[in-house]
Amino acid sequence: MTSDERAISIVESEIKKDGYDHFELESITSLDKPNITSVIVNTGFMEISMEIDNRTGKIINKEKIAR
């Protein structure tokens, strides 16, 4: 599993925990330093941004993006 696939899996789990049943991937960007992956998803009426630590798989930051 690539780091992008792992990040998408983590985001999918988090989105489901938040009560959303689907999402559309808007953007995914992996950075070597500081070794994080940034993901933006659209849940249909809201965009959510998450930063994931590639080493631990933990979400470092999660925020709603105003449209």
Task: Name the features.
four-stranded antiparallel sheet, alpha+beta, 4 strands, 67 residues, globular, 43% strand, Nuclear Transport Factor 2, Chain: A
Blueprint of the fold:
Layout (H helix, E strand, L loop, with lengths): L2 H15 L6 E8 L4 E7 L4 E7 L5 E7 L2
Antiparallel strand pairs: 1-2, 2-3, 3-4
Can you give a write-up of this model?
The chain is of the alpha+beta class and 67 residues long. The relative contact order is 0.22.
Short description:
With 67 residues, the chain is α+β, with helices and mostly antiparallel strands. It is built from one helix and four strands, in the order αββββ.
**Main sheet record:** 4 strands, antiparallel
* Overall residue-averaged pLDDT value: 92
CATH class: Alpha Beta
Total count of domains: 1
Q: Any idea what the shape is? A: globular
Portion of residues in beta strands equals: 35-45%
Termini separation comes to 32 Å
Q: Which series of helices and strands comes N to C? A: HEEEE
Looking across the biggest beta sheet, what order are the strands in?
1-2-3-4
Helical proportion?
10-25%
| Beta-strand segment tally | 4
